[in-house]
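Deliverable D5.2: sample structural annotation.
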Amino acid sequence: MTLLVALCAAVAAYVAARLLAPESLRRSNYRGSVVSLVAGPVAIVVLVLGGLASAAFVVAVLLSGIAGLYDDLRGDASARGLGGHLRALLRGSVTTGAVKVLVVGFAGVIAALLLSGASLRAIADAALIAGLANVLNLFDLRPGRALKVALLVTLPVLTPLAYLVAGTALGLLPGDLRERTMLGDAGANALGAGAGVALASRLPGWAVLVAVLVVVALTLTSERVSFSKVIDDTAGLRWADRLGRTA
């Protein structure tokens, strides 16, 4: 069942991303190449339709994805990173990134309440769901990188929701690696939130806490350290990161 879910998601995501490339969603990537952000909306639609049996999954993916799409379409570079957006918010400046952070956090809370009710476990679940949505976005700086991370996180979980996320990521990977499409905040947030729900639904409480600590550590590290530099400076990570890329 899980493999069938993954296969259907992969095919749907691949076909949709190939067929849809509206001019309004075209952006320049890190090399200045013009690519389509259509992968983000495609990820949201495929995940939501595939995960209708789980209200928590749908809420997390839909709200996080829409918040990311809003930032993709309306965002500016006035503040960068989670810390930058929060500092701007404290100064009274509401950036699109701050709106995204608040909506993703809200999505994590609602999804966690649907999963675990009003409990201490829900706090950890919310942190994992919202945190993974943000972390996956932090890795979306080079072709295929965030999608590879999504596959790494979800493939070992062996549940339909995890394989739905993995299949969607796999279907979007060819276009991303060829720099034809890119996830943007919409796709990265949607996939990350979906992965968070998949993990929270499967893992015992202690494992969720460990995952949250890893997510927090990565988030805090990203404020000071360039993930791209670390990856480029580490032979094994550099090989995995560039695997399948055209440039």
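Annotation notes: The CA atoms of residues 129 and 196 lie 4 Å apart. The first strand starts at residue 26 and ends at 28.
The annotation will be released with the project's public dataset once the embargo ends.
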